[in-house]
């Protein structure tokens, strides 16, 4: 199937590893030119070479801290200078530390707002004018299954990622007339470094070993396993394509059936 995104320009944040990297690879395989970003410049450059080598697409690595408005402005400016446009924006961010409400400080909350919410707002502010000009755009906001079914010890993520859904739905209504589609994807438990860290933290808190924690999570999923990053990326790539031309304002989980609610 031709998804119609060859030569489109995509910007994928938090993309040196895990789900973000898988999304960048998926878009590059379809022929998109992709800007990737992360804080660790060495890892980022290595990832860019890897993706370019395996897909043949042009990959632009731009070091950026997503809590910095200046870094975001520079990232988009650098993308425009190289590619001349931004057609697709995938807002992907790492998760905050695990904690109960009573264990979180005001500093924790402010950092999480900057990292998970303001980063999305600032990236959108920078790219939307270019999308409006071309009357075409795709914005995909990566959240978590926890926005529909809050997870234990993830009070920061449960709360602030839910705000991204409100932003997504509102923006989808405001931008539809410009041909800009805005959707959110909610990954379930996925085999990433982030989940490895959560697993270790849970094991320490509960006295269980790593394998027991993974097995418990897998057992709570109807498909009885955690997702692979590329399984999340497949939906994102579709939403970024011409084939998703009548999908906007949607919140879609990719969770192996983990979320139990109807909506």
Summary tags:
8 helices, alpha/beta, seven-stranded parallel sheet, 263 residues, 2 domains, Rossmann fold, 7 strands
- Within the largest sheet, what's the order of strands? 3-2-1-4-5-6-7
Number of separate structural domains: 2
Beta-strand portion reads: 5-15%
Q: What's the CATH H-level superfamily name of the largest domain?
A: NAD(P)-binding Rossmann-like Domain
Instruction: Give the CATH topology of the largest domain.
Output: Rossmann fold
Per CATH, which architecture of the largest domain? 3-Layer(aba) Sandwich
Shape: globular
What report would you give on this structure?
The chain is 48% helix and 14% strand. By secondary structure, the chain is an alpha/beta fold. Strands 3-2-1-4-5-6-7 form a seven-stranded parallel β-sheet, sandwiched between helices. Strand 4 (88-91), helix 4 and strand 5 form a beta-alpha-beta unit. The longest helix has 29 residues, at 106-134.
How are the secondary structure elements laid out?
Layout: E1 9-12, H1 18-29, E2 33-38, H2 41-55, E3 59-63, H3 69-83, E4 88-91, H4 106-134, E5 137-142, H5 155-175, E6 180-187, H6 193-206, H7 210-219, H8 229-239, E7 251-254
Parallel strand pairs: 1-2, 1-4, 2-3, 4-5, 5-6, 6-7
Helix pairs in contact: 1-2, 1-8, 3-4, 4-5, 6-7
How would you sum up this structure in a few lines?
The chain contains eight helices and seven strands. It is 48% helix and 14% strand.
């Amino acid at each position: 199937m031709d998804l119609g995104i060859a030569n489109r320009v995509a910007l994928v944040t938090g993309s040196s590893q895990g789900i973000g990297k898988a999304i960048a690879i998926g878009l590059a395989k379809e022929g998109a030119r992709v800007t990737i970003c992360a804080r660790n410049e060495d890892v980022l450059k290595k990832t860019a070479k890897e993706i370019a080598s395996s897909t043949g697409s042009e990959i632009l690595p731009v070091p950026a801290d997503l809590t910095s408005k200046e870094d975001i402005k520079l990232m988009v400016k650098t993308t425009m200078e190289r590619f001349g446009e931004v057609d697709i924006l995938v807002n992907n961010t790492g998760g905050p530390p695990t904690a109960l409400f009573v264990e979180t400080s005001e500093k924790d909350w402010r950092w999480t707002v900057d990292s998970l919410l303001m980063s999305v707002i600032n990236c959108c502010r920078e790219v939307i004018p270019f999308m409006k000009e071309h009357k075409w755009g795709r914005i995909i906001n990566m959240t978590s299954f926890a926005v529909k079914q809050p997870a234990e010890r993830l009070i920061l993520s449960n709360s602030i990622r839910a705000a991204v859904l409100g932003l997504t739905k509102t923006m989808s209504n405001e931008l539809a007339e410009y041909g800009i589609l805005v959707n959110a994807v909610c990954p379930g438990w996925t085999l990433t470094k982030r989940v490895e860290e959560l697993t270790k933290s849970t094991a320490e808190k509960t006295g269980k070993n790593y394998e027991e924690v993974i097995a418990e999570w897998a057992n709570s999923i109807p498909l009885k396993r955690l997702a692979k990053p590329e399984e999340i990326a497949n939906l994102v790539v579709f939403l970024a394509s011409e084939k998703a031309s009548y999908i906007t304002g949607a919140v879609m989980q990719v969770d192996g059936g983990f979320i139990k609610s109807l909506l």
